[in-house]
């Protein structure tokens, strides 16, 4: 069994211990309680915003919580001394939490819309958005030793990544919103519910830019991991 497979198994065990699945189910129930009383046409309008909010919870807050749990249990310090590579460690978190987020998004969409939405676009938008939120949450948590220290500074990056809501809703047409990587996933989620048809360049932007931005955040995450954990524990 490869190191990544072993790490994935360990990650799923840790997430069960941290009750992430329970929290995700509770989040899904809350979103359903918000959506189901709405008329059908309003559900389609609200759905992209709801799913983006869910990606924020599962992506940003779950991965940050995992980092602080592992710091508290000194799991991260122990990992530095093992042959496990950073990419394997982070990939296990991204794969498991992205899967959880996408499954939850599909569940909410199917419960509220049946099969009357574009499943491939929903999965694509949810995957891109979750990966971005995960990496943002991971990077934002590394410099801090406790949730109380992290919580207030975390408001700024999460607010920045949610700014495309103003552009998508028509409150602003400023082109600089396209510099924010969550603009693309939000556009894809809207297309999944037939709100706006994406042109070729919009679809290419919505996929390519978030992927490139996520790649840059991944490299930043490795540097910050080395700075705030490996260097402080004397790891190589």
The low-confidence runs, each spanning 5 or more residues with pLDDT under 50, are none
Could you give the distance between the termini?
Answer: 25 Å
Separate helix tally? 10
What global shape is seen?
globular
Give the averaged pLDDT, no decimals: 88
Sheet having the most strands = none
Helix content class: over 70%
The number of distinct structural domains comes to 1
Number of strands: 0
Helices and strands, in N-to-C order?
A: HHHHHHHHHH
Pfam family, one: FLQE3_permease
InterPro entries: FLQE3_permease (IPR056926)
Protein name: Fluoroquinolone transport system permease protein
Transmembrane segments: 20-37, 49-69, 89-109, 121-144, 150-168, 199-221
Summarize the structure.
The chain is built from 10 helices and no strands. The protein is an all-alpha fold.
Structure description:
With 236 residues, this protein is mainly α. It has one domain (3-233). The chain has 10 helices and no strands. It has helices at 3-17, 20-35, 40-72, 75-80, 86-113, 119-141, 147-161, 164-168, 183-192, 200-233. It is globular and about 55 Å long. It holds the Pfam family FLQE3_permease. The chain crosses the membrane at residues 20-37, 49-69, 89-109, 121-144, 150-168, 199-221. Keywords: Membrane, Transmembrane, Transmembrane helix. It comes from Kibdelosporangium aridum. InterPro entries: FLQE3_permease.
